[in-house]
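Task card 7
Instruction: Convert sequence to structure tokens.
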Amino acid sequence: MKKISLIICIVFAQQIVAQSYQKIHAKAIVVDTHNDILMKATDDGYVFDTDLRGKTQSDLSRWKQGGLDVQLFSVFCDGNKKNPYAYANRQMDTLDAVVARNPDKIVKVANTKELYKAVKQHKIAAMFGVEGGHMIEDDLSKLDALYKRGARYMTLTWNNSTTWASSAFEERFKKDLDHKGLTDFGKQVVKRMNELGMIVDISHVGETTFWDVIKTTAKPVIASHSSVYHFSPHQRNLKDEQIKAIAKNGGVIQVNFFSGFLDSSFEKRTAIFEAAHQAEKDSLMKINPESYFFQQYLFKKYPDEVKGLRPPLSLLIDHIEYIIKLVGVDYVGLGSDFDGITSSPQQLDDVTTYPLITKALLERGYSKKDVTKILGGNFLRVLKANEK
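Output:
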């Protein structure tokens, strides 16, 4: 009899979650701090205020379907790009054009006051995040100019180091680095970002740079799209001591959805998949040797095979929960990396699926208040703390 009663209670609780998670998601301010659609728009010609289903993980209509309220658009180019500052501005032009065509749906905002106003008007509040300090071309005036155009964070490095900050990739794999950590100019960059109200983003930076940032910054930092090293020991993920330092700093870790950052066995499974299609991979690498290029093609061509490579949604929730158990619920959020990744967890196919995260968190027993913090409240606190 007790077993039957317990089963009834569990089923009833699940029904309550099923009925309420969509309402909770709709009321929360949902923030995603990292989306790479501007790269696809600029490089591939995608117009993201049109229907891009089957082509991208994002578009304007689907953001609304997913209940997204605030999007920080990644401004990205790799370290080999000539004139990266000019390219950054081209990407910003792309968003400005979409905003101009859709003033009733999306608006650029400069601060939290404007952000809340946009959300109240049921518009997507848009900001930029510059992914890679090489785009300022060692010139603080260009940092200022990017801020004026709407950049509200800058990732200090991408995989390539700058002349003033070393990256996670190069700290791990490059033996002849000119320097590790922040140079004197690098510390000037961090201090100038603090003065402007631009959040310092430590995703992609090496550990030496990370600790130099923590010592230098006077304001809370973010990891705009990083996950937990404990589950997947990738150089892009954060170790326990780094997570604790970010919490002590008052910052926030925006968990990345990329399968390879969530699941330590993903790369091994992917290697087996790629080996099965080696001839195609070799041909694609002649066009573009970047793994993103050939993986994107192969993953789209063989969706049934790829499905088995993807980790479950529960593993993303495990990363979020690990941070919560280590430092508390005030220091974690969402930085999907949609349209910059080739694989996301099962069920999280595109931006329409954000509500499934809310549902999963409620099923883990998190309160409405806690879920609201994770979905966006924690980042909004850091954004406000960085404003002048």
